[in-house]
Amino acid sequence: MDTVYLIIVLAPLLGAVVAGLFGRQIGRVGAHSVTILGVAVSFLLSVVVFHAHVFGGTPVYNETVYTWMVSDGLHFEIGFLVDNLTAMMMLVVTFVSLMVHIYTIGYMADD
Questions:
Q1: How large is the average pLDDT for residues 34-54?
Q2: How many CB atoms lie within 10 A of CB 104?
Q3: Does the pLDDT of residue 111 top 80, yes or no?
């Protein structure tokens, strides 16, 4: 599951980077497809995580990715905390993001 959490975060970023760097080569439709694919992958994996946590009984995931600073015993860390509430919010946010990406194709078709 560790990899799934990371892919949920990085898939839209990868789509944006590919569309930004290779947009002229892949064209408008290709750029739309790559970005929507990145968000769609995040949404589908969010569904998997939601199902695993809410219905499958997967334990709470709390891992540190990076320790930013330690000051007088106080640790500032960047990481993942995935529980039932986080899984639900991940599902909602990725679904809304996917719908916004799909909507903008039609909305900005003439731009």
A1: 97
A2: 14
A3: no
Helix, strand, coil % in the chain, rounded to nearest 5: 70, 20, 10
d(CA 40, CA 101): 10
Instruction: State the pLDDT at residue 39.
Output: 98
At 69, the amino acid letter reads: M
Q: What is the pTM of this model?
A: 0.88
CA angle 11, 14, 20 (to 5 degrees): 140
> Distance between CA 38 and CA 45 in Å, rounded?
11
Q: Determine how many CB atoms are found less than 10 A away from the CB of residue 90.
A: 22
- The residue ranges of every structural domain in the chain are 2-107
CB-based contact 49:40 (threshold 8 Å)? no
